[in-house]
Design goal:
The complex is a heterodimer. By secondary structure, chain A is an alpha+beta fold. Chain A is built from three helices and four strands. Chain A has one domain. Classes of the chains: A alpha+beta, B mainly alpha. The complex binds zinc ion (ZN).
């Protein structure tokens, strides 16, 4: 999947789509079945907290997205075999659903 | 009655429901932190057993059917072994692996993205229709296609039509041909009929189903029978028997998960702005367990712990038993109904609903439990006690929120 610019992949920030990717185990970018390892893109803070907000992706799709105009220059790529999907709670300081990789792969 | 606000339905305060959420989070965390080699050994052992069962079943049929004296016992034994293999593979292994329950092991094969199961539905479509549509929108009317699978009327809120008179027959057909019913599930025939389905996506899905279905048919009804030469009919009959047994068993188990009387339905107002704690509560109220020993639970993919599976669909299934003890205690503490009963009773209730709802509502009474009475006497509430979300007002608030968006 080639993403011409980030606006095409804009749904990667939509809560509905993020939840669907998490549960259906599809790539947030190209909507096809995920592969092992699963890739997450996150800022340094997200990497440190081990809590990512963009949906899981193919490694190739994540790399592509990182090079796309409009991408966050801070994004780092983390690969994992599995992840926990965490729904936000009431009064959660982080109101968005998030992903916690649980088995990092180099 | 479908529930439009789980918290209000249960008479729980904000503080209580948040506390319940935290206690369930703690159960989850404990399992996450303690999963390890013992759990990995469990799933690896089951996969090995399942493979031995398949090999033993196929070999028994190939070798045993040629001699007249061993033909019938070989056919029966072979069919039984194959049925056990398919049940284990579909229910305790395939279904749970595809939820990502074992992804943490970092095993290239036992991973949600790689497992393809021994049934007609392509894994990718199952992960959409089951993991997402059913688990995210559990028992929400109009959202969860598992409420009757588009064939049966399973909630009194669903409008009756004369077509529903045939429910007992459709039900028997669905049970017999369950793997093919499941195979077509994600196509969402209702949306196709209404012309809402993207034709490109539909074509892609149909191709996948055709390919997977053809391979299943080739394997069980062409290749293995052909290997038996002149006795191909016996092998084919045994394979039909194995598939039929798996179909009936998985149908019964799945129908016991959400169709017994205690499992409640919800309206779409409930899922608007649902918090994690409310999501947990909806899962408890929408699911039903059944009782059984350890072997029974393994052979039903641990779906006898349907409530625990719905609370934590991606925790390893071998842990649901220990989790259930804690969940049950929490339900007692917060006075939340925990629906459980013997398998025959749970299925009996599901079957009764299928038959009752084949006729108009006015001919029968609802078997769903009445809402729990509030723990204290009802009194007028002050404004500060009133929930700040207007979705409690049901259909009226939906209209106004749409108007608000329009303005
Ligand atoms: Zn992709």
């Amino acid at each position: 999947m080639i993403v011409a610019d980030l606006s095409q992949a804009s749904r990667i920030r939509e809560r509905r789509w993020v939840t669907q990717c998490a549960l259906s185990r599809v790539c947030g970018c190209c909507a096809m079945s995920l592969e092992r390892p699963v890739a997450f893109l996150g800022t340094g803070r997200e990497v440190d907290r081990n809590a990512f907000h963009l949906p899981p992706m193919h490694v190739g799709c994540a790399e592509e997205l990182r090079r796309t105009p409009g991408a966050d220059p801070e994004w780092r790529l983390v690969t994992t075999s599995g992840f926990e999907f965490v729904r936000p709670d009431r009064d959660d300081p982080d109101p968005e659903p998030r992903f916690e990789p649980n088995s990092l792969v180099d | 009655m479908a529930i439009s606000d789980v918290q209000e339905y249960m008479h729980l305060t904000d503080e209580e429901i948040e506390q319940l959420g935290r206690e369930l989070d703690a159960i989850r965390k404990e399992v996450e932190d303690s999963r390890g080699p013992k759990d990995a050994a469990y799933i690896n052992r089951l996969i090995r057993i399942q493979r031995y069962l398949a090999i033993a079943g196929r070999l028994t049929l190939l070798v045993g059917v040629h001699d007249k004296r061993t033909r019938v016992p070989a056919a029966v034994t072979g069919a039984t072994l194959l049925a056990l293999h398919k049940i284990l593979e579909n229910m305790e292994i395939g279904h749970n692996v595809m939820h990502g329950q074992w992804d943490w092991m970092n095993d290239p094969e036992i991973h949600s993205s790689n497992w393809e199961w021994d049934t007609a539905q392509p894994a990718e479509q199952w992960k959409h229709s089951h993991n997402y549509v059913h688990h995210q929108f559990t028992n929400v009317l109009g959202y969860d296609n598992d409420i009757g699978y588009g064939i049966l009327r399973m909630a009194r809120e669903q409008r009756w039509s004369p077509v529903n008179l045939g429910q007992p027959v459709y039900n028997a057909m669905l049970a017999t041909l369950f793997q093919w019913g499941v195979a077509l599930h994600d196509l969402d025939i209702e949306r196709i009929r209404k012309g809402e389905k993207d034709p490109k996506e539909m074509k892609r899905q149909l191709k996948q189903i055709f390919r997977k279905g053809r391979n299943q048919i080739l394997k069980d009804y062409v290749v293995y029978p052909a290997l038996a030469g002149p006795q191909w009919r016996t092998v084919m009959a045994a394979n039909v028997g194995a598939n039929l047994t798996r179909n009936l068993w998985s149908y019964v188990i799945i129908f016991c998960g959400h169709f017994p009387d205690g499992a409640m339905h919800f309206t779409e107002e409930e899922i608007e702005d649902e918090t994690r704690a409310e999501w947990y509560l909806r899962q408890i109220l929408g699911a039903a367990n059944f009782e059984g020993g350890p072997l029974m639970h393994i052979m039903s993919g641990n779906l006898g712990y349907q409530i625990e599976h719905h609370l934590f669909p991606d925790l390893p299934s071998n842990r649901y038993g220990e989790i259930s003890v804690k969940v049950k205690a929490l339900c007692e503490k917060y006075d939340i109904p925990y629906t459980i009963g013997p398998l025959h009773k749970q299925y009996g209730q599901a079957l009764r609903t299928i038959i009752k709802l084949s006729v108009p509502n006015s001919w029968t009474n609802s078997d769903k439990p009445e809402p729990p009475t509030p723990p204290q006497k009802r009194r007028r509430r002050s404004d500060s006690e009133r929930p700040d979300r207007i979705r409690q007002l049901g259909a009226w608030s939906r209209g106004t929120s749409q108007e608000r968006k329009a303005s």
